Amino acid sequence: MASQVPGFATSFTELAMALLSSSEVVPRARLIAQQVAEMVPGSGVVVYTLEAGEEPFWTPRATAGDVAFQETAIPLDSGTLGTLNKKTEPVLFSGTRLRREQYSHLNVRRTIVSLAGLPMVAGERLAGAIEVLSFDKPIHESDLPPLMELARLAALGLAAGVAYEAERNTSLESITRLTQLYDLERSFNSTLEMEDLLPLITSKYQELLKVQGVNLWLVEGEGVRLVSQAGTDNTVEPETVEGAGQGLAGDLAESGQSVIINAGADERLQKRCEGVEEGTIFSLMAAPLMHEDAEVGLVECVNKLDGSPFDEDDLFFLTTVNVTASSALHNASLLLAERKVEILETLVSVSQEITSTLNLDKVLKAVVRTPRAVIPYERAALALEETGKLKLRAISTEDEVNFADPNIKRLSDMLQWASMFDRELFVRARGEQIETPLDETRDKFYEYFRDSGARAWYSIPLADETGRVGILSFESSDPDFLSEAHLEMIKVVAGQASVALRNAQMYKEVPFIGLLEPVLEKKRKFLALEKRKRAALVALGVAVLLFLGAFPLPLRLGGEAIVAPVRKAQVMPEVAGVVKKVYVREGDVVRPGTVLADLEDWEFRAALAGAQAKYETAKSSMNRALAANDGTEAGIQRLQVDYWASEVARARERLEKTHLTSPIPGVIATPHVETFVGRRLEFGDSFAEVIDNSVATVDVALEEKDVSLLHPGAQTAVKLDSFPTRTFRGEVAVVSPRGEQRGEERVFYARVEVRNPGGRIRSGMLGKAKVAVGWHSAGYVLFRGVGAWLYSKLWSWFGW
Predict the structure, then answer these.
(1) 191-338 has which fold?
(2) Within its chain, how far is the Cα of 375 from the centroid?
(3) What are the strands of the beta sheet with 433-435, ordered from one edge?
(4) Strand order in the sheet with 577-582
(5) Dihedral sign, CA of 85, 89, 95, 97?
(6) pTM of the full structure
(7) Chain centre to alpha carbon of residue 508
(8) Which of 130, 282, 397, 608 could bond to 264 as cystine, CB 3.0-4.6 Å?
(9) Three-state DSSP class for residue 742
(10) Cα(639)–Cα(621) distance, rounded to whole angstroms?
(11) pLDDT of 136 above 50
(12) The architecture CATH gives domain 693-798
């Protein structure tokens, strides 16, 4: 039989079972409070737990009756609870002798007759307390033993609940740390950009460790450099470099050891804080960043925000996180190394391209376009010194310099102005602020950035030993588009470009040097031959000239061919209506005028009948007036006849528009066109698409020098890649009036119409084509390209 204590509403066993039904503290405290309230009718009950720590305090957990608590944390020695803590045994207060200050932690609106305090002792430790406030009749000393029996049982239950919650919170904290580590690894690996990664690392460290400041030092030479800071640390400046014996960070990096310094009087912290009045360090934790047994840097955390000292758990967490940070920094450094290799490869490419030719135009284009592979500029421009004047000659975004364009004119003026400083200029705009090393350039660039939309400008003069060659500029909408590596590359390119441009200019000014020397050498060799050999060579030359001048050969112009899109037409109603009947399906062959569908026409037939009736009525009235010799009435009716005749014609025309017909021959390409029956179509709605694939149009790209020989009707042979064994023939229908740029050449398109039986030729097919432009002399056919080039050169030298 279960034991029962006098005054108890339930047995010990039932209470214990009720406590065990819930593992948490608050539900158990609520059960205890309710049980005590039943034992002392007309009372209020508060159950507390004692929270351990450097400064222990009472925490109310549950109440019963007409009482509530005002504070969630009550000092250990406060009022009646303080008395209970000192005695660690039951205490009883009479309501007449109890002052309000002694129970100020409670919210009570009734007169207290008695207040009893019951300690809850688990083992030898005070785990909590029960306060019982009687409002109807006093509590006597004889009432306390049963309550203490309950308090001892309650102490064990609450202690077990507190232990359970502590264990659960520890598990949750561990899970939280694991989650933080996972999120941290994901955040660090979300970018390979070193500039973005460094502030991300320090900000995450500060967020997770809840510290005043974080410093990230990376190994540089024989010391470490402060590359990123988060929070506040007034004892060290960004970009500070420290070696062994030069500062705390340098010494810690040299030792490679993790350290915790919690004593503000520590000599190392005092030396670090020397000269700093505000924001000194009273606690510091540091751990090295290691990758494959090599130290790559150091992380410092200073001053926890809650004022507590760093402990071994904090250091362990920092060391664990450092592993992830080291890996992320290693990956970012690999990307930086790869970019440096890419820059070097681009430098070699630029050098080869600008030094492999003496063609000035090619050198200009190479200088402004090739560096774009690694330098993220949006526009580059180059101006050359010519006859004492600076002239804009090349722009990376334009094939030709059009000075009529106001944007080009603005750029040219800026290059002229920037060349006066005879030094490199790097100007950037951040908001309304203009960053420039020269104050006199600020207003000029403010206007230029406002008009051009650029946010950064970099220009560098080009010069060699003989003087100024020109000026090279780069622009971008990103004010930070150039890094130190980019600036170094530009300076190297500028030096190479100066030499290449000077050589190209000199070659262009004396063009006969490369032409006359080979001719004179051939003449000397010819005169050194025997007379018979010279005569034979002369005869052979005359025969070759006669062949080239008199023997005709067919001239065919070849070019790349592409099949243009087929001709197609959209069938759309000219009047609104409901589709009554559809006569075709997808794939049906139709001719021009073939009726594809009919719209409901009763409305238009009614209109036609009405107009016809009006016409007949007016005509009868006119005839009656003529019969009666009434000329005036007959004239009026004549006007009515003409009007209604036009209305009849208009109504008949609208009725005809209810028949949807094909405008071209071809094939119905609209799927499920028969499902349009019953659908209402508005004017302009698409009903069906007709594709005419009986004739294919082939666009043949021909060089600009050949366009004068083209004419409509020229016979053309087309060989498509899809049909390697078949040749399609057609005629030139039209020659495009405007050329297009393809690479470094300009081409014109001859549009050739080729019969397409069975629709085998499809849009987008590629191939080759030859256009026959007649018979010409062999010399013209074989050497017309060389002749045209030679003539253009001679004209550029002597023509006017």
Answers:
(1) Beta-Lactamase (3.30.450)
(2) 18
(3) 389-395, 379-386, 467-476, 456-464, 425-430, 433-435
(4) 659-661, 595-599, 577-582, 680-681
(5) negative
(6) 0.37
(7) 46
(8) 282
(9) strand
(10) 11
(11) yes
(12) Beta Barrel (2.40)
pLDDT digits (tens, 9 = 90+) for 304-329: 887 788 888 788 878 887 777 787 77
Which 3 state secondary structure label does DSSP give 753? Answer: strand
Per-residue HEC secondary structure of 35-67 comes to HHHHHCCCEEEEEEEEECCCCCEEEEEEEECCC
Tell me how far apart the alpha carbons of residues 261 and 311 are, in angstroms, rounded to a whole number. 10
Cβ-count burial of 407 within 10 angstroms (0-12 exposed, 13-18 middle, 19+ buried)?
A: middle
What CA–CA distance (Å, rounded) separates 65 from 72? 18
The answer to whether residue 244 scores a pLDDT higher than 60 is: yes
pLDDT for the residue numbered 3: 38
CA distances from 418 to 167, 274, 379, 443 (A): 72, 47, 16, 13
CA trace torsion 618, 620, 622, 625 (10° rounding): -140
Interior angle at CA 706, CA 705 and CA 708, nearest 5: 95
Long-range contacts formed by 462-466: CB under 8 A, 24+ apart: 462/382, 462/494, 462/497, 462/498, 462/501, 463/498, 464/498, 464/499, 464/502, 466/502
Helix (H) or strand (E) holding 407: helix 406-418
Average pLDDT, the chain: 81
More confident residue, 335 or 639: 639
Task: Please write the tens of the pLDDT for every residue from 250-305.
Answer: 888 888 888 888 876 788 888 888 877 777 888 888 988 887 777 888 889 988 88
* pLDDT tens digits for range 547-575: 777 778 787 888 888 887 667 788 888 88
> For residue 195, what are its two tokens?
């500039």
Q: Rounded to an integer, what distance in angstroms lies between the CA atom of residue 379 and that of residue 615?
A: 74
Per-residue pLDDT at 379? 92
Q: Which residues touch 98 (CB under 8 Å, ≥6 apart)?
A: 80, 112, 115
Q: What does the alpha-carbon distance between residue 800 and residue 795 come to, in Å, rounded to a whole number?
A: 8
Task: Indicate the CATH number for domain 12-168.
Answer: 3.30.450.40
Cα 495 from Cα 507, distance rounded (Å): 19
As given in the structure block, the two tokens for residue 252 are 């810690």
Mind listing the pLDDT tens digit for each residue in 611-667? 888 888 888 888 888 888 888 888 888 888 888 888 888 888 888 888 888 888 878
**Residue 475 reports pLDDT greater than 90:** yes
The single residue listed with the structure tokens 């790097």 is 426
CA distance 782 to 549: 11
Gap between the Cα atoms of 80 and 99, Å rounded: 10
Which amino acid is residue 58, in one-letter code?
A: W
Give me 377's structure tokens: 């500029």
Superfamily of domain 357-509: GAF domain (3.30.450.40)
Identify the pLDDT of residue 456. 92
**How far is residue 395's CA from residue 261's CA, in Å, rounded to a whole number?**
60
Q: Please report the DSSP string for 221-257 in residue order.
A: TTEEEEEEEEE--TTS-TT-EE-TTS-HHHHHHHHT-
pLDDT tens digits for 65-97? Answer: 888 887 788 888 888 888 888 888 888 888 888
CA–CA separation, 708 vs 771, rounded Å? 13
The stretches of 668-777 forming alpha helices (DSSP H) are none
| pLDDT > 70? residue 341 | no
Dist. CA 215–CA 704, nearest whole Å = 65
d(CA 587, CA 479): 59
DSSP class of residue 592? T
Contact 29, 46 (CB under 8 A): no
